[in-house]
């Protein structure tokens, strides 16, 4: 167990491409921190810098209080699970897990004990003699996990470990990873582009965009009060709706002339955000939606359409059986506190 | 391709049999010639094996053809084997290491080093044979196993093949090994070389045959007959000067010279075919 502290680090590739322009993050001991963001946002680069697979251009990374900038990956007391698992194809499952321990000159009986324990925890007892190519995708993923846990490191680093699994297995493995991490209590950094994975796994959610941290917080906090329009649009599925309008002291006037009362604003162009699941049908509601497509998901249905009088796209998640048909007009509203107001130019939360 | 038409099957087999026959016929002829007496062979090679096989083979294996200056067959086979194996082992060791350096290390002039190696692909041994001879002679390596094998060891082809293979090994494997605490040479030994197993087998076969069939180079660097290789030996026998070449014995030698490469191919066949067609990852 160790805390990880990342202190104003920068990553500039040779040639001057700045991937991470100064970023700080503190992860408490035993915490599972999820880095989430679209591809190219620098989340994998950040993880690889913690692992020691990428050089840090500037700044400092400390694991358990020890500066690790100039240490080899093996000396950092971390282990990593790769997206494609990176199992050694010519070694048996046992050897794959034992390789790192052997390189550390751990006595043989101890290696045996640790690998057996890890295999037991992951349900791999019967497979120790097999080669990776004789295993299914899910089993390979578990071998990769096993290779990480036998080391009993100060921190686990996960680089999109579930993206090569099918949807059903992904949900199952997600739960297993969470349970395992809680049982071992090992500080972890987990990189993913899947916001659902991020929401369900994280103790601490870090939303990244263009090499910067947009918001850090507990997943529900981020969901309920996104700090920027980017976070609001990235976390949650289907994504938050943004209705362009003008702010006044009494509220927001949407571009189609409809007023929504929201005290506390000053003025200027804003985007009024509202989550699809917060919208509900109300004959007196301010949001008028002309329905284009209805997607039935079973428990709910996503109603896609346009805000009347504008070309802003809106999605509403409705439940019940009395669903509209394409071409209908619906009036919707959202409860107090479900509206999010962002500055249109900066994307910063105003209310 | 799984059509069941008798005529098609017949044509397929006919073509294959004809092709095989064309390839095998000269070898068959050599074998037949090696089982007759000199007179029978010189009056036109018969088409069926004769009964002189044991005497002919016993003669080439035992005393050799002292009249034409060729040592006994056993020594020549041994020389050929030493040369072919040294060339093969040397080529594989050097090209494995140099392609490892080129693919996995960043050093100044890395690309230049690769292209320099690559360009030598285009120079056959014969082109550089005079300067190489000069160097070998000045180093006093004429008439030695070192002189026979070392100048032929540098191999652009093998380096290139291993480079291409190493580039297909996923980067994550290297990174996982780094996290597992394997230094560069440990990674090379524990992961890269075992992964190259099939490529190694394929190259072993190709390079062994290349080394075994060397003709011009051994002819130049050896004058002492105790270093003659089998291929040279055959040449010496055929150029018998005043005398009529002893074709029945030459053919027996040729058949014997053919055997080691065949054994190597049969022994390596399974790995060899896999190495050529399948990239295991």
Provide tags for this entry.
heterodimer; A: 351 residues; alpha+beta; Rossmann fold; OB fold (Dihydrolipoamide Acetyltransferase, E2P); 2 domains; six-stranded mixed sheet; five-stranded antiparallel sheet; 20 strands; 24% helix; elongated; B: 281 residues; mainly alpha; MetI-like fold; 70% helix; globular
Describe the structure in your own words:
The complex is a heterodimer of chains A (351) and B (281). Helices cover 24% and strands 34% of the residues of chain A. Chain A has 8 helices and 20 strands. The longest helix of chain A has 18 residues, at 167-184. The relative contact order of chain A is 0.12. Chain B has one domain (34-275): MetI-like fold. Chain B contains 14 helices and no strands. The model of chain B has no long low-confidence stretch (mean pLDDT 85). The A-B interface holds A 51-53, 72-74, 78-80, 82-84, 86-90, 99-100, 103-104, 147 and B 170, 172-173, 175-182, 186, 190-191, 194-195, 197, 280-281.
Task: Give a concise summary.
Helix content of chain A is 24%, strand content 34%.
Set down the secondary structure blueprint:
The complex is a heterodimer of chains A (351) and B (281).
Chain A: E1 4-13, E2 17-27, E3 32-36, H1 43-51, E4 58-63, E5 66-67, E6 78-81, H2 93-103, H3 108-122, H4 137-149, E7 155-159, H5 167-184, E8 187-192, H6 195-201, E9 204-209, E10 212-217, H7 219-224, H8 229-234, E11 241-247, E12 251-254, E13 259-261, E14 268-274, E15 279-281, E16 287-296, E17 300-307, E18 313-319, E19 329-334, E20 339-343
Parallel strand pairs in A: 3-8, 3-9, 6-7, 7-8
Antiparallel strand pairs in A: 1-2, 1-4, 4-5, 9-10, 11-12, 11-14, 12-13, 14-20, 15-19, 16-17, 16-19, 17-18
Helix pairs in contact in A: 2-3, 2-4, 3-4
Chain B: H1 6-33, H2 38-42, H3 53-61, H4 73-104, H5 110-120, H6 129-138, H7 145-149, H8 156-168, H9 171-179, H10 184-195, H11 197-212, H12 216-221, H13 230-238, H14 247-277
Helix pairs in contact in B: 1-14, 3-14, 4-8, 4-11, 5-8, 11-14, 13-14
């Amino acid at each position: 167990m160790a805390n990880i502290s990342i202190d104003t680090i920068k990553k500039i590739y040779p040639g001057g491409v700045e991937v991470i322009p100064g970023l700080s993050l503190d992860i408490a001991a035993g915490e599972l921190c999820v880095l989430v963001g679209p591809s190219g946002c620098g989340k994998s680069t950040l993880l690889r810098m913690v692992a020691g697979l990428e050089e840090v251009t500037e700044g400092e990374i400390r694991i358990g209080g020890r500066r690790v900038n100039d240490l080899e990956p093996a000396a950092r007391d971390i282990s990593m699970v790769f997206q494609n698992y990176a199992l050694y194809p010519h070694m048996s499952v046992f050897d794959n897990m034992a390789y790192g321990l052997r390189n550390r000159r751990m006595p043989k009986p101890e290696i045996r004990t640790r690998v057996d324990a890890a295999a037991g925890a992951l349900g791999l007892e019967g497979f120790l003699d097999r080669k990776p190519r004789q295993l299914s995708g899910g089993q390979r993923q578990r071998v990769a996990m096993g290779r990480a846990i036998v080391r009993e490191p100060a921190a686990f680093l996960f680089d999109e470990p579930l993206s090569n699994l099918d949807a059903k297995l992904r949900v199952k493995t997600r739960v297993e990873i969470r349970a395992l991490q809680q049982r071992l209590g090992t500080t972890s950094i987990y990189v993913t582009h899947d916001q659902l994975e991020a929401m369900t796994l994280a103790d601490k959610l870090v939303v990244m965009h263009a090499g910067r941290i947009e918001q850090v917080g507990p997943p529900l906090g981020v969901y309920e009060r996104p700090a920027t329009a980017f976070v609001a649009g990235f976390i949650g599925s289907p994504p938050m709706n943004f209705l362009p309008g003008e702010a006044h002291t009494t509220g927001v006037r949407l571009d189609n002339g409809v007023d929504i009362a929201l005290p506390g604003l000053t003025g200027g162009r804003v985007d009024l955000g509202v989550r699809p699941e917060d919208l509900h049908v109300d004959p007196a509601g301010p949001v008028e939606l002309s329905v284009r497509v209805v997607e039935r998901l079973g428990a709910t249905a996503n109603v896609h359409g346009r805000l009347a009088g504008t070309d802003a796209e809106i999605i509403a998640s409705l439940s019940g059986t009395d669903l509209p048909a394409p071409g209908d007009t619906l009036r919707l509203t959202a409860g107090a506190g479900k509206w999010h107001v962002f500055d249109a130019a900066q994307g910063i939360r105003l209310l | 391709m799984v059509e069941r038409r008798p005529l098609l099957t017949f044509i397929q087999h006919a073509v294959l049999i004809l092709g095989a026959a064309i390839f095998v016929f000269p070898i068959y002829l050599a074998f037949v010639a090696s089982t007759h007496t000199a007179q029978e062979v010189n009056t036109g090679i018969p088409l069926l094996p004769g009964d002189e096989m044991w005497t002919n083979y016993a003669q080439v294996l035992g005393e050799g053809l002292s009249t034409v200056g060729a040592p006994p067959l056993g020594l020549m086979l041994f020389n050929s084997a030493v040369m072919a194996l040294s060339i093969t082992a040397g080529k594989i060791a050097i090209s494995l290491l140099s392609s490892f350096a080129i693919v996995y290390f960043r050093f100044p002039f890395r690309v230049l080093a690769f292209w320099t190696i690559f360009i030598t692909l285009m120079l056959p041994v014969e082109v550089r044979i005079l300067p190489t001879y000069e160097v070998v002679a000045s180093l006093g390596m004429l008439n030695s196993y070192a002189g026979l094998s070392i100048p032929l060891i540098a191999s652009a082809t093998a380096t290139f093949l291993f480079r291409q293979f190493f580039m297909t090994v996923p980067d994550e494997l290297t990174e996982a090994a780094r996290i597992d605490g394997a230094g560069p040479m440990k990674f090379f030994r524990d992961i890269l070389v075992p992964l190259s197993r099939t490529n190694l087998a394929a190259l072993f076969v190709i390079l062994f045959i290349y080394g075994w069939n060397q003709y011009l180079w051994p002819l130049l660097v050896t004058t002492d007959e105790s270093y003659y290789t089998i291929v040279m030996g055959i040449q010496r026998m055929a150029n018998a000067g005043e005398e009529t070449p002893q074709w029945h014995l030459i053919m027996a030698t040729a058949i014997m010279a053919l055997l080691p490469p065949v054994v190597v191919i049969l022994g390596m066949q399974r790995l060899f075919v896999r190495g050529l067609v399948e990239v295991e990852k």
